[in-house]
Amino acid sequence: MKLIGSSEDEQVKLYAYKAMEDATERVTLDINGRTKEFDWSISHYSGTEPQLYYTDLTGDGKEEAIIIIQIGRGTGLNIYEIHVVNSDNLSEIKVQRYEDIVAEHIESRVSKNDDGTLAITANSQGQVDNFNYDFDPAPDYHQDELAFGGIIIYTLDNHKIKLSLPGSIGISPTYVCDFNITYTFNKADNEFIVDQIEVKPMELR
C-alpha cells in the first residue's frame, strides 16, 4: 500500500487502500501500528497532501488522530473535510457539519443600499454584525442571504478545531465576510460542536 501522509511524529499514517485513476477511494489509517479502513475519497488533483496530526482534542489526556483532506478546489472554491479518530478503538468522532452550524447558529440578510452598495447583516449566536460591501458584484442577481459552502477550511489551533467559513454573494461567488468558528468537544454526545463564532468582513481585493 502506498503511504500518502503521516503526522510529524509518524504515529499516524495514511495509506491508499484503493487507488483509482483520479482519486483514492479507500484508505487505511494506521495509528501506532493499529489499522482500520475508511472510505474517504482523496483526489489526486487537489495539489494539497492530506494533513495528519496526533494530539489531544477531547481533553481526556489521550491523543486522537486528526486527518484534514482537501476535497475541492477551483476558482472561488477551496473545500476541506476533517476526520477525528479515537486512537483506542479507531472509531470516528463526529465533527458538526458546517450546514448544521449555519442552520442552527447563523442568520444573514443581504439588501441593496440606494447607492448601489450592499448592506449585510450577520447574526451568529445572537451577536449581530452589520456592515456595507462597497459594490454589488451581481446587480441583477437577487440574493437575500449569504451563501456558504464554496470555502470550507479546517485548521488546528492550540488543541482546538477551527473552521473558516466565508459567506458569499453572487453566482460566481464573491466572499464578503468570514465566519471563524471554534469547536468544543461535547463529551455527552461524543461530538465536536460549535463553541464560538467570530465574524469578520473581508477586505476588498
List keywords for this structure.
globular, 4% helix, 6-stranded mixed β-barrel, mainly beta, 205 residues, 1 helix, 5-stranded antiparallel β-sheet
Assembly state: single chain
Which structural category do the helix and sheet elements fall into? Answer: mainly beta
Report the β-strand fraction as a percent range: over 45%
Mean pLDDT: 93
Largest sheet at a glance? 6 strands, mixed, barrel
Spatial order of strands in the largest sheet: 8-9-16-15-14-13
How many helices does DSSP assign?
Answer: 1
Shape: globular
Q: Number of folding domains? A: 2
Write the layout of secondary structure elements.
Layout: E1 2-6, E2 12-19, E3 23-31, E4 34-38, E5 42-43, E6 51-55, E7 64-74, E8 77-86, E9 92-95, H1 98-105, E10 106-112, E11 118-124, E12 127-133, E13 151-157, E14 160-169, E15 174-186, E16 191-201
Parallel strand pairs: 8-13, 9-16
Antiparallel strand pairs: 1-2, 2-3, 3-4, 3-5, 6-7, 7-8, 8-9, 10-11, 11-12, 13-14, 14-15, 15-16
